[in-house]
């Protein structure tokens, strides 16, 4: 049974101010909660319908709710059997590491884009993302949902990209409208791929840190590509097995 106090408490976590104050976040759905329970994240509480079960559901207090009650506290159009509240893990930003590939995100503000970028990084084996301070937070419920569990494996740190990219010591590839065609670019084993804001691109103050401007040649008439789509295409050519 879901109390009014608990319902209000869950609903408050859809607001950034409350998430930050309590250092908590919400994960919804069977897939996301499965990944969460199998991770190092501390799960505070689980709200689930009677038909949901998991071998590790004993990791946190479980409250059984009706479908109507779950829908009341869900951020999804249609609630998916289970919702969990977990403690945030804050990753401290650091300069890109040598012998590894890092994704840097400049002003990514759409939650769906951010979540998809995290999922793309996970797909290509990138476990670190550096995001500018004006990028959407990783614990936004829409970001978490869009990652499809990849937030478990990919650490996202927020900081001043100018400071983080200065003297990086490894190539910094910038996704620009002009530059070397990614189709001519050799595969890499270390470097940073910098992706800019959905509408404004990469901020001017970061351009001096780009050592290798690259672009995706346009064949048709589209003016631009979605940031996550562009990152996926670029990484598929930069990282080759």
What are its keywords?
single chain, 241 residues, alpha/beta, 6-stranded parallel sheet, 4-stranded mixed sheet, 10 strands, 28% helix
Would you give an account of this structure?
The chain is built from eight helices and ten strands. It has helices spanning 4-12, 16-22, 30-37, 67-73, 111-123, 141-147, 161-165, 227-238; strands at residues 24-28, 43-48, 62-64, 82-87, 101-105, 128-132, 155-159, 172-181, 191-195, 212-215. Strand 6, helix 6 and strand 7 form a beta-alpha-beta unit. Helix 5 runs parallel beside helix 6. The strands form two sheets. Strands 7-6-5-9-8-10 form a six-stranded parallel beta sheet. It has a four-stranded mixed beta sheet with strand order 1-4-2-3.
Layout of helices and strands, plus pairs?
Blueprint: H1 4-12, H2 16-22, E1 24-28, H3 30-37, E2 43-48, E3 62-64, H4 67-73, E4 82-87, E5 101-105, H5 111-123, E6 128-132, H6 141-147, E7 155-159, H7 161-165, E8 172-181, E9 191-195, E10 212-215, H8 227-238
Parallel strand pairs: 2-3, 5-6, 5-9, 6-7, 8-9, 8-10
Antiparallel strand pairs: 1-4, 2-4
Helix pairs in contact: 5-6, 5-8
Q: State the end-to-end CA separation.
A: 51 Å
Estimated radius of gyration:
20 Å
| Order of the strands making up the biggest sheet | 7-6-5-9-8-10
Oligomer kind: single chain
Question: Based on DSSP secondary structure assignment, what is the total number of beta strands?
Answer: 10
Instruction: Report strand %.
Output: 15-25%
Order of helices and strands: HHEHEEHEEHEHEHEEEH
- Inertia-based shape: elongated
Low-confidence parts? none
Sheet having the most strands: 6 strands, parallel
- Kindly state the percentage of residues in helix: 25-40%
Structural class determined from secondary elements: alpha/beta
Query: Given the structure, what is the number of helices?
Result: 8
Mean pLDDT: 94
